Amino acid sequence: MATEVKVEESMGVDRCVMQTITRQSLDGPITKNPDARSYREDHTDAVYTLVEEFLIEQGEPQFAFDGSIGTEPLETNPNFNAGGDFEIPENIKKLWTVYKRNPTDPYLAGKGTGATTENPTNLWQPATEEDASFQVFYGFIKAGMESYYVGRVTARVTVLEEGAPDMTNLGKIDAWGDWPAGFQVAEGCNFILSGVRSQQEGSFFRTTYEYQSSPAGTAWNAILY
């Protein structure tokens, strides 16, 4: 029969409370508890010793943040969209989108500034578009500035949970429920759950949820995500 000889408790920086139980026996190896996070076994001078570690309080979420910049198509810049200083009308943005994909798309026929010998079907051409806001936009395009830098934030939350992680929201709009005080992203941004990593520790799982913010000045589209 194993005898419990020592019980210790400790708290880590993540405020998880661990309990270490030491048992000894002269009768043979001691049966291990399957809920133990880890164990250490020893047999010295006919004494069998088993030291097991248990997680008894889950602690608090641990946060990590990365900030970086990436590129987005110039037409998504807030200045060229609703409320921006150079808001491009929706019909012209659609023409530009089609033109980028195929400059001879039939959708563009009859939408230019007039038929010519070189353009008998009157295809829409960005160089002849008269909208003032589009002219500002197209000036950047002609100068080779087809994209712009935007800020991005990656947030990671590590927690100990009783049970396997929930991955049903991967790739969908989601966010940790209670960000730490002072954490901010650009106005209008939202998050998608972009990754989950989990490792079982005894009866608990140590899981890291990763959230990706939308580019600064935009939001992940609820229809797509």
Tell me the radius of gyration.
Answer: 30 Å
In sequence order, what are the helices and strands, one letter per element? EEEEEHHEEE
Instruction: Assess the beta-strand content as a share of residues.
Output: 35-45%
**Count of structural domains:** 3
- Low-confidence runs: none
How many strands?
A: 8
Largest sheet: 4 strands, antiparallel
The strand line-up of the biggest sheet is 1-2-4-3
The general outline is: rod-shaped
Task: State the helix count.
Answer: 2
Helix content: 10-25%
Structural class: mainly beta
Average pLDDT = 90
Span between termini: 58 Å
Q: Can you walk me through this structure?
A:
The protein contains 2 helices and 8 strands; from the N terminus they run βββββααβββ. The radius of gyration is 30 Å and the shape is rod-shaped. With 225 residues, it is mainly β. It starts with a strand and ends in a 12-residue tail after the last strand. It has helices at 90-101, 132-142; strands at 3-11, 17-25, 38-44, 47-57, 62-73, 147-161, 191-201, 204-213.
